[in-house]
Amino acid sequence: MKIALTIAGSDSGGGAGIQADLKTFHQFGVFGTSVIVALTAQNTRGVQAVEPVSRTMVAAQFGALAEDLPPAALKTGMLAEPELVRLVARAIRQNHWTPLVVDPVMVATSGQRLLTAEAEDIVREDLLPLAALVTPNLDEASILTGRAVHDVATMERAGATLLRYGAGAALVKGGHLTGEVLTDVLVTPSGIRRFTHPRLETTSTHGTGCTLSAAVVAGLAFGRELHVAVEDALDYVHRAIAAAPGLGGGHGPLDHTVKSRMSR
Fold first, then answer.
1. CATH number at residue 56
2. d(CA 106, CA 120)
3. Is 179 a catalytic residue?
4. What is the residue range of 215's domain?
5. In angstroms, what CA-CA distances link 252 with 28, 151, 178?
């Protein structure tokens, strides 16, 4: 069994963060481990509180996994503050863990900020050069590149910019585009792939980015080619949104119990 690692924040509502990642890993048949860097008090209506985990404890979690349960692939999610971003990047470099998927979590669906402005620069400078793939949504791509990203053409340009910053590839997600058909853009050194799917009219979108990046990590842990891992992940997320249980009074969680292509 392959091991996949998530480095992210805990979501008390269970729809995003560490909880979503571990559920996704399970559905893809990999054994999930975690380094928790922040605690959040949240539900489908929003984030009430955020508390970073001490750097000593974060380092201890890395040490425990390095000596006994090293991952075949890993991801980062919510990293909260500058020193935690630096610590995480340093630990990944020191342990030579690859391939890494960076989900640059910056703002919650509810609008709550999950990464400080100073930390954004460190993500760009310290984490992106380690990433086999970075998976920003439109807003995150705009923040990372300093340019407006609002359609497929600007998504492609943003992806190319992220490669110049050192990322191995970029999947710019089009979930916030307008129209009946949504497009996600995968930019790699060998070219551009577009993935399209019909828009689902739903408010159950909490944790989509976490789930997508975790699904890609699972595929990479099994040695899938990047475009195959991305295609499988997008398929899983689309069906998990379509099957969402409608929990809570805000942006509800996906149905992580839907089968992945790898488990069907």
1. 3.40.1190.20
2. 8
3. no
4. 3-242
5. 22, 26, 21
Residue-wise pLDDT tens digits, 176-200: 888 899 999 999 999 999 999 999 9
**At a CB cut-off of 8 Å and minimum separation 6, what does 27 contact?**
236, 256, 257, 258, 259, 260, 263
Q: Does the active-site annotation cover 209?
A: yes
Which one of the listed residues 205, 211, 219, 252 is annotated catalytic?
205
Task: Tally the domains of the chain.
Answer: 1
Side chain identity, residue 40: T
pTM of the model: 0.96
Is 254 part of any domain? no
Q: Is residue 250 part of a domain?
A: no
Contacts of 117 (CB under 8 A, 6+ apart): none
Catalytic-residue membership of 6: no
Question: Quick one: pLDDT at residue 174?
Answer: 92
Edge-to-edge strand list for the sheet holding 46-52: 46-52, 31-43, 3-11, 73-76, 100-102, 133-134, 170-172, 181-188, 191-198
196 annotated active-site: no
Active site residue 173: yes
Calpha distance 27→4 (Å, rounded): 12
The reported pLDDT for the residue numbered 111 is 62
Which is catalytic among the residues 15, 32, 77, 207?
A: 207
SS (H, E, C) 158-189: HHHHHHHCCCCCEEECCCCCCCCEEEEEEEEC
